[in-house]
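Dear Dr. H.,

I hope your travels went smoothly. While you were away I took the liberty of generating a structure for the chain from your last submission, since the lab meeting agenda had it listed for discussion. I wanted you to have the full record in hand beforehand rather than looking at slides cold. The sequence, exactly as received, is reproduced here:
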Amino acid sequence: TLPPDHFPRPSQQGRTMPALGRAAGILGVLCVCCIVTATATPHTVHASHLEGDTGATRTSGNVQHGNSTPPPWNASKWSLVMLTDAAKTGAVCLDGSPGGYYIRPGLPNNSRWVVFHQGGGWCTSDESCAARANTALGSSRHISPYSWQPTYTDTYEGSQLFATAPFDTATLVYALYCDGGSQSGNAAAPVVARPNATAPLQTIYYRGRPLLDALLDDLLSKGLNKASELLYAGCSAGGLTVYMHADYIRSRMPTSVTTVALADAMFSIDTPDAQGVSVFPKIMNWVFTAMNSSGSVNDGCLAAFPNGTQCMFGANTAPHVKTPLFVLNSKYDTWQGGGIIGAGSCGKNISGCPSQVQNFWVDYGNRMVSILEALPPQHGGFLSNCQAHCQTGSPSWHGLTINGVSMSDAFVSWYNDAISSKQPVAGSHRHAETCDVKPCPGDTC
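The corresponding predicted structure, in token form, is as follows:
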């Protein structure tokens, strides 16, 4: 049993504090999980591949990686670490079970690390969090068949990045997502709710930020403190995690560690949908308020938007991020099509949308480009017209091009300059299509 008064309400991002989380987003992404018994120290147990924010089923096994090296994420190289000690002090998933992560050691004498946050949407109410607490996106408890597997098998997120030089020889960490609030929550007291009208009451915890601190503490004790470079990355809800926490992560690193960030998806804009209904902003406001996320949003963003809710949007936060950041997004993101634009059945095919929706979405994508172009010079980006979501695990990572430059080449070029602190030439690491709906002439999806 966790003490309800264990977690003070935070007011500053830079504090180390426990966190809370929740799940079951507007996409209704729910999985079934299994039971893990907490023990005295982090240890290896079994865990699961999950379903992504798009609702698409993730695959496991070997895939082709274009010009990259053989997949470094195969089952023989990764192990699962459970953060069981941290759970005793309140750093827990929605259902109160321990958090965890997969790790694959890098080659000897390689001091580069990648920490990548899994996505999986958000929950939208105490009831949806209670439902999500019964899935692998809200629990590490083992309920077949959707338990956390003993190794990373999720090719939907990160796999193409992990297999691309120079990251293929780095120490790779895949942080599992079980808090439902992009590692932002820090509510003191647990909540009691039913997942549906006939289900029994459940106790749920909103502690994503303590989970983030527990992750960092454990990794720093296992060699991250001796890294020379850290790429802090994530996809979808994990991408929003990056926008919110990149500067905090850098503040936790020794000065000898050069930290840069990659946000895959969720360069989201705070706006009503095409029908003028405020759907996603209300969801983010619920997350921010119910989960007590005020101490997790970016400090600079909070200064610009004192009520804090707007800082749950990537496009609002990015201008205030000091850590070198690479923005990766489709202008017509397939998740944002349904979740933010309100495109309904044409959310994955903008060409088939009614003119009102299509025009709204085109304007939304062009606003993305304008915000990218106005970001601080250390930030790079890649915004294409090709409809996608979570592209670090997609073949488009190597195949999609803008003006003859592939997504992967654009990112690696930016990364090399950012790590070396080379001052970028204005616009040199920003790639964005400026035509509408279809790829511009010569560009490929």
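Two observations you may find useful: Residues 1-70 have pLDDT under 50 and may be disordered. Residues 106 and 171 are 4 Å apart (CA to CA).

With kind regards,
E. W.
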